[in-house]
Structures are given as C-alpha cells and as structure tokens.
Write a structure and sequence with these properties.
This protein is α/β, with parallel strands linked by helices and 346 residues long. The chain is built from 15 helices and twelve strands. The chain folds into two domains: 174 residues, 3-Layer(aba) Sandwich (Rossmann fold), CATH 3.40.50.2000; 166 residues, Rossmann fold. Helix 2 packs across helix 15 and helix 8 packs across helix 13. The radius of gyration is 21 Å and the shape is globular.
C-alpha cells in the first residue's frame, strides 16, 4: 500500500500540527513497515508558493500513490480521483474566532476546508468537539447532494510522542513553579493567567513559567513588568524539546487557560507525565477529561476563578489520568489509521 503525505508540517512545524504529523507517520513506519510504503512530500526546490495546492497531487500520482493523506486541513486541487484521499481536520477556529485571523487567511482557510470536505473519501477529525464545529459551520455544504453522498467522518484523537511515556513527574523540591507552554497568541489567554497569578502569588513561593513563541510576547512581557513580576514570571522562548520536557517533569503543576482549542496536545503530554493540572472549562477539554476526577476547572474569562485554581494547583500532590491515556494510546490510534487506509482499497 503506497501512501503519500503532505509533509510540510512534519518537517517545518515544531508544535501541534508538526507533533501530530510526526507521531502518526513515525508510528505507521514502526508498526506497519512491511505493509506500507510511505512517502513524505515536502516542498520541492524552486517550487512556487502554492505548491501544496497545485503540484502536490500530481507528484503523489506520478509516484504511484494509492492514498494521499492531507495531515493538516487541506488536500491538493490537482489530486486525481484515481488516488484515494484522507484529510485530517484539526479545528475550524478561523470560523469560531475570526478576529484572530487576517481576512484573506480566513477566506483561504474556509475555501480549502470546503474543498477538503467535498474531495476527501474520509475526513478524520481529532475530537468530537471539532466534529460538532464542522457541522455548525458547514452544515449547508454537508447537506448538499454531493457532500452527503461522499462525506465520511471519523473521530480519532491525537496521540503524542512515545518518549513521554518514559517520563515521570518529579517536581523540583526547591525551585517551585507551575508551567504553561503554548503559542503566545490571543486565544491562549496568557493575559488573564498573568493577572490571576498577580492576585495570589504572594500566598505561595511558586513561580510561573510561560514557554512558547508568538506575536504577543512583547505585550505579555510589558504586562509582567508593569505588575512588577519579572522575578516571578519567567519566559522561555523557543525552548528545545529537551528543555521543555525537563521543565514539565520538574514543574509543580500545569495550567491550560486557553479560550478554545481543537484538541490540546500539551494537555495530553502533561497527563502522560502525570503532572497535576488546572484547565479551562471548555468543551474539548471536558471531552478529553471525561472520567478524570483529579483536575481543577475554571472559567477562562474569570480572573478570579483562574486565581483560585492556581492556589489549588500549588497544593495538589498527585493526579491520575488513566481514562485519558486509554483514549490517546499510540498503538490504538495508529491502528485506526491503518484500518482506514485498508478500507479505502477494498
């Protein structure tokens, strides 16, 4: 079975979509090496900016692909119908939070999503929440004859690198801190977290570490300085994988105040390590944590609720996430994709 992948994120994205791509493809390679011939298609030398939309499909077809898998919300327009197609849609946040995206980007993302829904033989969504969002924003398209005749959606959660299974939570006894690692963008809600930390940080010795990258870092640094908390809130910009893993293992707790997500890979990473956590009470986190009791919840719009969750988090000494870890088991998820590929060629 020959499968071609749109591998832009695999090679060039160090966070969510890149981690998803690498975990999936590497898992398929290690478990089904004798059954699958995988081709990671990256930007060719001298390619035009729209190489993923026009060019990638022909490349896959010329290689002899049986299946093309678009790993991040889109399929090439030049993919011939003789090649079966799978697309993974991670979120439609450009619809639910339009102010976070430039107008032209929203138009492009919307068009590509519509096309992927129409073209794909199977659409994989990474959470039931994202599936509900697709129904919410694309029901008119789904109801059209050619959509309802073809559209086949399947929810498969995202797994994470197996290396996290080798780590165990071991908080530093002297350097106490809670951690949030995420892109520095508006929907990640760093500002409310900083304000909440400022309200209660005099009650405990723990610092707050913010690890990531993004266009809001300067604004966040200014807020921290204005609150005279530069000695209590520490930024780690572009941490390496090794640095981030060490920061997580030695932390006293993990907090995730995001306003909305399509999934939440950092949550799964923290749970795999066994770190106590406090989370935004948003649908996708509640979906993932269904059956997990050792979690602190808060309204991400309430600074006071975040403050109280921080206090609770600094006092939490253990956590249990077996129900979540069953849902994101790498072997199980990899097999689900393998079964999808097989079903397309029957």
């Amino acid at each position: 079975m020959k499968i071609a992948f749109d591998a832009k994120r695999y090679f060039h994205n160090s966070s969510g979509l890149g981690n998803y791509s690498r975990t999936l493809v590497d898992g398929l390679r290690s478990r089904y090496a004798s059954e699958l011939n995988l081709n990671l298609l990256d930007k060719p030398s001298g390619a035009l900016p729209w190489w993923r939309s026009y060019g990638l499909g022909k490349t896959a077809s010329d290689w002899g692909a049986d299946i093309f898998h678009g790993l991040s919300n889109e399929l090439p327009f030049d993919l011939p119908s003789s090649v079966k197609s799978v697309v993974t849609i991670h979120d439609v946040l450009f619809k639910s939070r339009p102010n976070d995206y430039p107008f032209l980007d929203r138009l492009i993302y919307n068009y590509k999503t519509q096309y992927a829904l129409k073209k794909a033989d199977i659409v994989v969504v990474t959470s039931e929440f994202t599936e509900s969002e697709i129904k919410k924003y694309y029901q008119a398209e789904i109801d059209k004859y050619f959509f309802s005749k073809r559209l086949n959606r399947k929810v498969i959660y995202q797994s994470i690198s197996t290396k996290y299974l080798s780590y165990s939570w071991n908080p530093h006894p002297e350097n106490l801190y809670i951690i949030y690692h995420s892109s520095f963008v508006a929907r990640k809600n760093h500002l409310n977290l900083i304000k909440a930390f400022a309200e209660v940080c005099h009650l405990f010795p723990h610092n707050l570490i913010l690890a990531g990258k993004g266009n809001l870092e300067a604004e966040l640094n200014k807020t921290v300085n204005d609150l005279n908390l530069s000695d209590r809130i520490i930024f780690y910009q572009y941490p390496s994988d090794d640095q981030l893993e060490e920061l997580l293992v030695k932390s006293s707790g993990f907090i995730y105040p995001s306003f909305t997500e399509g999934f939440g890979i950092p949550l799964v990473e923290a749970a795999t390590i066994g770190i106590p956590m406090a989370l935004s009470k948003i649908p996708v986190f509640q979906e993932l944590m269904n059956g997990v009791e050792t979690v602190g919840w808060f309204d991400p719009y309430s600074v006071n609720e975040i403050s109280q969750s921080i206090l609770q988090l600094t006092e939490t000494k253990s956590a249990q996430y077996s129900r979540l870890l069953e849902k994101v088991d790498v072997s199980n998820i990899t097999k689900q994709y393998y079964d999808i590929y097989q079903s397309l060629l029957k």
